[in-house]
Queue: 4 jobs
Job 1
Amino acid sequence: MNDSPRVIVALDHSTADEALALITALGDAPYAVKVGKELFTREGPAIVRTLVARGTPVFLDLKYHDIPNTVAAACRAAAELGVWMVNVHASGGPAMLRAAREAIADGAHRPLLIAVTVLTSLDAAELAAIGIKDSPEQQVLRLTRLARDCGLDGVVCSPQEIAAVKRECGGGFLTVTPGIRPAEVSLDDQQRVATPASAVGAGGDYLVVGRPITRARDPRAALSAILDEIAPAIRQA
Ligand code: C5P
């Protein structure tokens, strides 16, 4: 755990050129990157191959959700691309989650398999509209337990949920948390935020950081400040 990168830089860029310019600007500090739907849809697996070939760990954030056979095949394809982390929607159900896990279990390279529980854009009214009467919090915990029971490695959650996830599932069950904002930085559109040090102090494993690094005047300095901020909390963990 201590050897893996703790900060995942969200490459929310439109083109490979923009994303690679940022990577060049970031220098040699230890970090991973998140490739999401926009960049992947525009640039395809070539951008992932380029990043992997440079030695940059890639979280492929495509949130697979489909029938078990299709999700299993997609996860296998992601593993073959050499990604470090991949994710699926826990609401795809236990058969889909188990199929995803089994698909990557015996490959030459096994990515971390992370579940998305409830999208933060879904509030109680949105959940009710799709037939879920429980609160978002209850649904998050239900899907977190399901992901753990199906052998996934962890969940995406807000920094405020790290402690509950760890209590429920144990310290080894990983948390991947967006909503990270260094104290002096704009919140942008994030509501439930934590500083890098408080997220790691709460037991958080991987911090997803986008705009505080990608829109910084000096992205390398912004990343380096975050790594310096979390170093004491990592040593204490
Ligand atoms: O720029 P910022 O640090 O807010 O970027 C956070 C990244 O994490 C973005 O790629 C965003 O889509 C993603 N994310 C999020 N909140 C979630 C799930 C994913 O901000 N609940």
Job 2
Amino acid sequence: MSSSKSNPKTSIIILAAGLGKRMHSSLPKVLVPVCGRPMLFNSLTQLESVVPNARVAIVVGHQKEKVIEQVNAQKFKLQIDYVEQAEQKGTGHAVKCAMSSEWGKRAVANKENVFVLSGDLPLLSAELVKEMCEPFKRGVVLKLLTAVLKDPFGYGRIVRKSKKGGVIRIVEEKDASAREKLIQEVGLSIYTFQAQFLASGVESLKSNNSQKEYYLTDLIQIASSKKRLIDTRIWENVDDVRGVNNPYELSQSGDILNSRIIREHALNGVRFVSLSNCRVEQKVKIASDVSIYPGVILEGNTVIASGATIGTNVVLKNVKVGAYADVKAGTYAEDSVIGENVKVGPYAHLRPESVIGKNSKIGNFVELKKTTIGEDTSVAHLSYLGDAEVGSHVNIGCGFVTCNFDGRVIDGQRKHKTKIEDHVFVGSDCQTVAPVTLKKGSYVASGSTVTEDVPSDALAIARSRQVTKIGYAKKLKG
Ligand code: UD1
Ligand code: CA
């Protein structure tokens, strides 16, 4: 049951059909990521948190299949419908497409309010959504959100009767006179309308402006000329309402969102040595009591457990870091798992599907690929291990290489497996030519190139014997 006439439901229209030409991206603008997530998802997440069951119409056009597919994959709780705007004739035309659809007709029939916003507002806050979904005061046909900006360039300017008087109209940057361009109060593409007013208003829009488009902003003039009541709110937190039209504005919004993310982690117990030069994407999870040094980039579904330390200039993408692990400076890791109490780096490279067990150590200039390392194992310096399975309590000396590719195709596989079982000791400067297994407790002498399996507890020496010629050095020197 709708509660009363003065308290209608609010439904939502999101404008996402535009080309986003100024972004110069192959992606539709609303899918361009800000801090690792398409900008449209940020607004949808805020809407979901405040009005989880609201009806939402997303107006799609340019690359609509991509937008629909990506939004659907997120499984938002909101009741999302898509309305097509086949030709992009402006924001007013986009809303007209929504209001003349079944979706819009239902909004009118139910006497709903309709919150309209553009899809390029990644910094929208929950407070703002709450404000726009509040029931209207009696007689109000539209609630208009504005902000006062130091640099209003590009935004529609709010023209008032007098300095503190009512709003008469919004004039777009491209249509504004030199005097109007001096106005610092701007429209934000954020409004709520009475459905009936909106439906009839968009029908009467004209495109006699510099861009030959139907401007949604012209509804303000329609309301004011008809002496309908406009509730104008100036939004103080200008960061919440930044539109993103080009890569410069994208970076500005990214910086703001990033600092919001870092602030939240810091208040939850993460210690950032510096607040200003780490990047943390939105899906990253960090437990309390973690220290993060400058220049760190945490991306994707990275999860860091309590007590871990992430050194300077470390990049982690979809990496799970265990409790008390120490990931040292300059390490780059992707799609990998770093176990509890593990030490990695400085300057280690963990390529996808690397898993390092508890208490192990992967030292400087070590590269792992598709390699699992057991517990209490050490690969301390200058090594490459690919397609390898290494057990626990293994010690691998400096400069070891698993030769996993020698041009042969065995059972359809070009890359071959190396197995190094528990308690194996590999001396420095060794290679193993895969497929090969070093069995439990075996020992490989320094400088060996191992081409055959080494049995358990055996010693393999695969190098030429030393020849020492007494006095020969003197002869060489002449
Ligand atoms: C718009 C407003 C401007 C305001 C600014 C705030 C108009 C005419 N101008 O300008 O007053 O200051 O937002 O950020 O409304 N879209 C469609 N179909 C179209 C055209 C656009 O769906 O035919 C969508 C776009 O995908 C975008 C949104 O509408 O998400 C806004 O369009 P955009 O071109 O970014 O408008 P601005 O120039 O920023
Ligand atoms: Ca915009």
Job 3
Amino acid sequence: MEVIIQPNQEAAAALVARIVAHDLRANPHLVLGLATGSTMECVYRHLVRLHQTEQLDFSLCSTFNLDEYVGLFPSDPNAYRHYMDRHLFRHVNVDPRNTHLPNGLATDLEAECRHYEAMIQRFGGIDLQLLGIGKAGHIGFNEPLSALRSRTRVKALTPTTLKQNAPLFGGEDKMPRRAITMGVGTIIEARRCVLLATGDSKADVIAQAVEGPITSMVTATALQLHPRCTVIVDEAAGAQLKEQEYYRWIFDNEPEWEGYR
Ligand code: GLP
């Protein structure tokens, strides 16, 4: 795992967008894993700008989102399909037929989960997976105690997650209690993972995810097993990390990051 500390949220999100742009230019057929949440909105803004000003081309790439609520229509403003259309898909030249999210309205949800896994396989696996992190340390909707080898499935949301996301729905009682999510095992099979966290509300969970012991109580810790995972934080989200000096030295000196400094 590598950690990059950026001065602020804007710089952190811009760096994630530049990594996506770099990988997409190197491989126009990139299979991109996407995440939702407020943290990612800034990344998508940067990607849209790169598309508009630097002709970043999405026409051949395919996307797979981490998760979707059970029971929401794609047109529901809180559906992740709606989020993706609003923040990215409709502003870039991605082929809508190549954009995938789990179908939270499927009558047979287990079959839908198996189908989603099979689709990822059919596209050759995910090349670059973007991740946020929930306040309970989850990636996707892999709530505490999710098996670290889990696959795409339906998960019940914890009280912490319900509380975190309820304001968007106008209250916990109006929000779905379950979601389809890629499993931890599915996520860590991606060839590259990039996790973005910003703001002081994420400082504690980032310290646990990066420097704490691997545990299914904080599913982001499974990323420590990944051979190519980059965690990008702003100063606020990185504030509780013990090895900040080491992380900064690597970003400032290692040739891999030369074009990104
Ligand atoms: C939801 C999503 C996660 C995301 C998290 C963080 O729980 N399922 O994939 O990482 O929100 O959201 P935010 O960026 O709004 O803090």
Job 4
Amino acid sequence: MKATRKNFLKTSAVLTAGALVHHPLLQAAVNKIQQQPEALAYTLPKLGYAYNALEPYIDAKTMEIHYTKHHQAYVTKLNEAIATDNSLKGHKLDHLIAHINQVPEPLRAAIRNHGGGHWNHSFFWELLKTKTNPSQKVTDAISKDFGSMDEFKKQFEKAAMGQFGSGWAWLIKANGKLQITATPNQDNPLMDIALIKGKPVIALDVWEHAYYLKYQNKRADYVAAFWNVLDWNKVESLLFS
Ligand code: MN3
């Protein structure tokens, strides 16, 4: 972070001088600095399991393509967008997505879509694991706000089915209360532009790329299968942290 800021200041100083002096040698130096590749800020996080770990609920081919192609594309495009504007460099992703409204207009959509895509998928992968069950503590916390675990699942599935087109369904915590919401595209409840904000506890990707190979147009079957691959231990740690 420090080095980035220092380089940015140095570049700015030379640019200012270049604008004043218009000396060809100085201009060449400015061009060289501008062309220096920046270290890429964001990388694809390590997937903590094999592509086939979530079979038969999420198939290996979908996992592989989703992770190596779709998620990678968000990371690549996020880095490309950031490389064009020094004011976006050196920030944590959480900070960027919480301040979408402050991103300069030409890049706002790119940071929203690709920054959101990177955040959402990184979060989603960590929520997936087979053969876990909610503890009594988790069941009680969810029942407190939704009446019962079954009622919660029903409402969550309804939100996942009700999201028209591409997007995500969420369980969030806001002001000590649990709430279900859905967001379009790669928006998420941490964004300043989100209608309903809160801390994500559960996320479900309902883009067709998340299920089409196995479930085709049957989103309901994919959503129902999700409960078999949700890591309830991870949910518990997010609920009580
Ligand atoms: Mn996806």
